[in-house]
Amino acid sequence: MPNQMTSRARVEAGLSRRKRKEKIFRASGLLATAIGILFLGIFFSTLVAKGASAFVQTYLLLDVELTAETIAPGGELDLEYADFDGLVRTALRNNFPELSGRNDRRELNRLLSVGAGFQVRDLVVANPDLIGTTQEIWVPAASNVDMLMKGNIDATVDESLRNLSDRQIRWIDTLDQAGRVDLRLNKALFTNGDSREPELAGIRGAMMGSFFMLVVTIALAFPVGVAAAIYLEEFAPKNRWSDLVEVNINNLAAVPSIVFGLLGLAVFINWMGLPRSAPLVGGLVLALLTLPVIIIASRAAIKAVPPSIREAALGLGASKMQVVFHHVMPLAMPGMLTGAIIGMSRALGESAPLLMIGMIAFIVDVPGGFTDPATALPVQIYLWADSPERAFAERTSAAIIVLLAFLLLMNLAAVILRRRMERRW
Amino acid sequence: MHSTTLILLMGFMSIAAFYLGRSRSLAVVGGPGRGKGLHSLPGYHGYFVSIWCVLPPLALLSGWMLVEPGIITAMVVKSLPASQQELPAGELNLLINNIRNLATGDVVSAAINADFQRAADLYNEYNATSRRLLSVLVLGLAALGGALAWRRIHPDLRARNKVETVIRWALIVASSIAVFTTIGIVLSVLFEAIVFFQKVPVSEFLFGTTWSPQTAIRADQVGSSGSFGAVPLFAGTMLITAIAMIVAVPVGLMTAIFLAEYSSARVRGIAKPLLEILAGIPTVVYGFFAALTVAPWVRRVGESAGFEVASESALAAGLVMGIMIIPLVSSLTDDAINAVPSAMRDGALGLGSTRSETMTKVILPAALPGIVGGILLAVSRAIGETMIVVMAAGLAANLTANPFSAVTTVTVQIVTLLVGDQEFDSAKTLAAFALGLMLFIVTLILNIIGLYTVRKYREQYE
Amino acid sequence: MVVASRKAAYHHKDGEMTETLVKKNMSASRTSAVPNYRGQQVELGRETVGNVRCANPFMVAENVNVFYGDNHAIKDVTLEIGKKEVIALIGPSGCGKSTFLRCLNRMNDSIESARVTGNISLDGGDIYDKTLDPVVLRARVGMVFQKPNPFPKSIYDNVAYGPRIHGLAGDRAELDDIVHRSLERAGLLKEVKDRLDDPGTSLSGGQQQRLCIARTIAVNPEVILMDEPCSALDPIATARIEDLMDELCEDYAIVIVTHSMQQAARVSRRVAYFHLGYLVEVDDTDKVFTNPHHKLTEDYITGRIG
User: Fold this and answer.
1) ipTM of this model?
2) Distance (Å) from the C-alpha of residue B256 to the closest C-alpha of chain A?
């Protein structure tokens, strides 16, 4: 054996090099972890920076004369005939008596959203007593005005490079000084369906679509998933069939979601003739998609119930079925519910398969049922992200914030459920 | 009667059947206190009657729904003038669709004439008759089934066993739905793909280098078969996947190592949930971020370095996809290195290894099969990822390995080909299914190998 | 009597050391009554019985305490280990003998909640000194574990692992030489010389353990710690390892933890008996086994505890 002292000297000699390597390795580990977290930070900060402003919206305060002869010529409110847009435009023009030409007027009218007239109409329909009076009403401004107020249009660049003319900007300044321009809570975002006009576009339609879809998904995937898990864990004989089912479920969990969309298109729409764009079909596809997730989670929950419980119940003369339904299932339920919530949050964020089954259409109406044409929140995000208008980028971010808030809530629920119901054996 | 009403009605009947069955079971042994005389608990008798009341009509209902549209369509077609009956399949389909739309009051894409209107009326009439007949049959069957079961109630009736058998079968059916889903995927994709390959040869699809399906919009157009060489799509998919893996594998691996070996419990407790958030962000959100934030950034950086960068570069999509996959890689790596027995770690440390030497020379080699399996699953995930590439990678089918240029992928093309209204049996639409078949096969192989490797690896140390 | 003593408490991250004030209730912790096998209360002495010192001390532990979180696992242990002597640590399960062993090459460092106070020196140098890298310490104080744990590599690579990471061999020939001599020394060369490229896990349990010993001596340590090295082996393999220990103590000091009193009697020159974290008795092996001074030691070696 070589001298122990020489060995020691050699170890000492290599030490600084090894320590350096160790430091580099550790630093790269830290860097890698930081990259993920840094991305998360950048992601959320840009999201909030871009999206927060969409929760407010520019409104113009106008003194609208609800003259009876324009909207209720026969003494009764006549919706076919009434020109609410005209009323609003006149109200705006009253602020600028110096303007007279057609072109001037047209340019001025572009400051108003096309939804301004509708808003006044809704107000009058809800309260016919207002006819004949003059009301101060906050009406939505056009999205370009909104962008200017939010600082997204640079008034200093050349007129040809922006969507608002110098005169329009002056008019807005005038209105602003009169206290007639304000950023107010954007209710339209939560009460309207989709629209071509950014200032009128909302996510209510998409949210309802997602809601109906998730109802279908949970109603199908949870019972079936739990039943499948119970069978596989408690009853299935160990043979080739159960091996096949096992492998199959694990594989299914990793099949690209778009393939499920192809399945939905071919089977549910073309073969079974279910309607396109319907939350029913979306829910069916998502149910198949989340089924493996729920089965895997439920099986884990069932496995965690100790065999002693089963033996105790069997020993008292309960049938296998009674053991499962009276003892195993209640004990495994928190785990199964957690799995279901996680499956649902995955379904809520899924969009690729929905594109395949036509849930990507432009739908203005808020869906009221399972077969109404609808879109879903993530698909709405996709649609808006594709829109060229600058104002839609802001709304996309806002919709993402809403979607992430829902996902966060669901995951929080799962965590709380796990914490509160978790049993230690 | 509307089918929802029908199902609701059946629900009420089943509840009624339960109580009737239960009370009869008690009655046959002579009152509530004598339950001991029964073979099964009264509740099981209730379930027994309830099942007989619901299952047969439910089977009838679903069978009816399945065949009803076909039969009614056939009957309507028969009523059409002979000239229209002999139309080619495609045009006949269009006609039937129009009849249906007219009948339900939807938008119709043809002039409405008398024949047409008559067919639509007929369609409505047949439908109404069918529904009336169905309601009567279903409710009748429910009543009949329930009554027969009710009459069979007897103290010796093995109601529990019978109910349990039904439940058992229900469980079996539930567990095979997953298998049927797979079969459904294979069949639906395969059938359409076969039709496609009758129009476009397999060899052209697999080895052709030009992809331009756009010419196939009108069926009577010259050269309507377009050009369906999918090599550029495969290349694009691989390019983006490769970029994603170059980001995700080292970062995910090092993250897992850092959290398992170096970080304190507190840091781990914060970092792990944060990374899980990364895994929970919907892909459409990643896509939005890739398209609006990362792509312009890549372009700026690339151009300032003197490269020509497309606004929808493969690099931007790949980078963001890589970030998305980091949590997957890191959690699978974490599982793999945790499965290595701590004796290995102790042995290496006991010989005087530094932590990094322990990790790189002992634990990682031991965990390699598990990590490779995990990476295969991550590759499969990247190949099948849709929204990020749809939003950030673009549509240009370039055959290139330049990460700064725009490429397209299999999933992007599937979406583009199928979104919007097309004739369902045009080569363009069918091509999507052929691509879907390729996607399914490739990811299936990766998944099977990946899952098998991971499982075998775990068993080795169990 | 409450004594507040300022002692070095070692934090187990990267050998960083912080001074911590350790308050101890000396009388309470040093003299406590523990039940023996009949449930009778037996006084644990404040001082270790026998002789903790030795003629030629090489490794010296003074007043060592180990805590796992709130659990006080080793209580004020003082023990000297002589040069080239075999010392056996015996005692019932959970008495802290393995914990103490792991303090000697700082293997407890990797357990986050573990905290060691007191003083351990190797050849006069404090092993918990913050400037000392545990890597160097472990090259000098090797360790063989309870279960044979060859790396999932070839036999050759297993033995070559230590010399490689420490840079002990200048070239391939030198490395070959170290591997061969270590295997020879571990009595394994004859059995494996034709299959050095086979995986280490392909060997039998006893061979695996000898491989682990070869792996340890390839680094040329000064002390070898053995944590129940034979508990997973059959009697024949055990006998071979015991023979090996006899040979190895010509060059190395060996500290062995064992459950088997026969083994302790066969291989060791001195024996230290641990009980509930206390070092109860230390003395020459024949003295302890023929004439134990402490009641607990006597109970243990006559088979009434453990």
Assistant:
1) 0.89
2) 8
